[in-house]
Design goal:
424 residues, UDP-n-acetylglucosamine1-carboxyvinyl-transferase, Chain, 2 domains, four-stranded mixed sheet, 23 strands, 26% strand, binds ligand EPZ
Length: 424
């Protein structure tokens, strides 16, 4: 027990061949932005295909704190803000996930005032929010920071020309939220192009916002005064899809991964193919089989549409099975190597230097007791444990459950021996 919380572990008996179909859920990194974006409407908003993961549950808790009505039926959520109150979100909730900070842009846009604690999120680097705050200031917000809490206040937010030093996903979305009701036109240059940004822009435009260029490096937002009811569907989770594609390449026999947008994981699929994977494509699914003679490839994580940083850790497991020396470089985060020591404990031969890895393969992996240091490191542990000989126990499995809906059911259904166990 850690305090009053049971520690969740994932126990896996590795070496099974996985066959059948895995259906991909709605994207975590869309859903966690769409829920805060919904409060901009003055009427009811419905979000379909919402993944049932702890991050979305935590955001719904924040909606309740703000006195918003919300009702989840199957995988749709109805949100109504007619009785919304702009109260301080408790620090414990803000700290549960990085995406709590989208309430900053949404509440500032709706009330011209917001008081919030700094966000939490995976421990993969410093993860400042300077670009968000700089953008809000350009729109006329005054910011005061006291210890871990910041207050943003504006007479009236006004349109501005904002150049992002880094194409930050979070800053792009947060500034888009703030600009939606600002007076005048906002142009965001060097904007991030991730598909999740397009998903959020489509919800806002369905409400009556005037946003053009989402998904490109330049987004133009013409402020509007009223936003009405709207409905949106969360796009398939490209990181979940990529993680299962990697599992298919290592353990699959005709493993079908369905309800995906292939284009969103093209960087991964092309790297798997370069290494020798044979992938059959269908309209919105792929079929993949494990092979034993993969060749070494080199990877550098980049912003979209480059190879996604969130797939870097799971893909490292694949590289341990490639013949030769593969080189991997993480370019977005300074501390996203929590999985490496545990993979080496399982038998891989990975040398790391700063954000670069040199992976010698193929190596056989053996089940071990390992720890999920963050969400995608945890995903890497699942991938490795499914491949390894023998039993693995993954501690701090809560990290994994934040971003992979029904992961044990989805994997058991295709033949994995996997379960969640709580330890006192
Ligand atoms: C989003 O994080 C995702 N999280 C991350 O996924 C993902 O890794 C990341 O985008 C990049 O694709 C959510 O969408 C909830 P960034 P975000 O702002 O928005 C620096 C996962 O595993 N930066 O694009 O926080 C930052 O430190 C998570 O699902 C600043 O310097 O990412 C990082 O080095 C992990 N100042 C880089 O930019 C800022 O104000 C990219 O960060 C903002 C960011």
């Amino acid at each position: 027990m850690r305090g009053d919380v049971n520690i969740k572990t994932i126990v896996i008996e590795g070496g099974k061949t996985l066959s059948g179909t895995i259906n991909i859920s709605g994207a975590k990194n869309s859903a966690v932005a769409l829920i805060p974006a919904a409060i901009l409407s003055d009427e009811e908003v419905i979000i379909d295909n919402l993944p049932n993961i702890s991050d979305t549950k935590n955001l719904v808790e924040i909606l309740n704190i703000l006195n918003c009505d919300s009702k989840i039926e199957n995988s749709s959520i109805k949100i109504n803000t007619k009785n919304i109150k702009n109260v301080l979100i408790p620090e414990i909730l803000s700290k549960k996930l990085r995406a709590s900070y989208y309430f900053m842009g949404a509440l500032l846009s709706k009330f011209n005032y917001v008081e919030m604690y700094f966000p939490g999120g995976c421990n993969i680097g410093s993860r400042p929010i300077d670009l968000h705050l700089k953008g809000f200031m350009k729109m006329g917000a005054k910011i005061t920071i006291k210890k871990d809490k910041y207050t943003l206040q504006a007479k009236n937010l006004k349109g501005a020309n904002i150049y992002l030093d880094i194409p930050s996903v979070g800053a792009t979305i947060n500034l888009m939220l703030a600009a939606t009701k600002a007076n005048g036109i906002t142009i965001i240059e060097n904007a991030a192009k991730e598909p999740e940004i397009v998903n959020v822009a489509s919800l806002l435009n369905n409400m009556g916002a005037k946003i053009h260029g989402a998904g490109t490096a330049t987004i133009k937002i013409e402020g509007v005064s009223k936003l009405s009811k709207a409905r949106v569907e969360v796009i398939p989770d490209r990181i979940e899809a990529g993680t299962y594609a990697i599992i298919g390449a290592l353990c699959g026999k005709n493993l079908k991964i369905s309800n995906i947008i292939c284009e969103h994981i093209e960087p991964l699929l092309s790297k798997l193919t370069e290494a020798g994977a044979e992938i059959k494509y269908d309209e919105n699914s792929i079929i993949i089989n494990k092979k034993t003679n993969y060749k070494a490839v080199n990877i550098k994580t980049l912003v979209y549409p480059g190879f996604p940083t969130d797939l870097g850790q799971p893909f490292t497991v694949f590289l341990t099975q490639c013949k030769g020396i593969s080189h991997f470089e993480e370019t977005l985060y300074e501390n996203r190597m929590g999985h490496v020591s545990y993979l080496n404990k399982m038998g891989s031969l990975i040398k790391s230097h700063a954000q670069c890895l040199e992976i010698k393969g193929p190596t056989s992996l053996n089940g071990q007791i390992v720890t999920a240091t963050d969400l995608r490191a945890g995903a890497a542990m699942v991938v490795a444990a499914l491949l390894a000989k023998g039993k693995s126990i993954i501690l701090d499995a809560e990290h994994v459950l934040r971003g992979y809906e029904n992961i044990t059911e989805k994997l058991s259904n295709v033949g994995a021996k996997i379960e969640i166990r709580e330890i006192e």
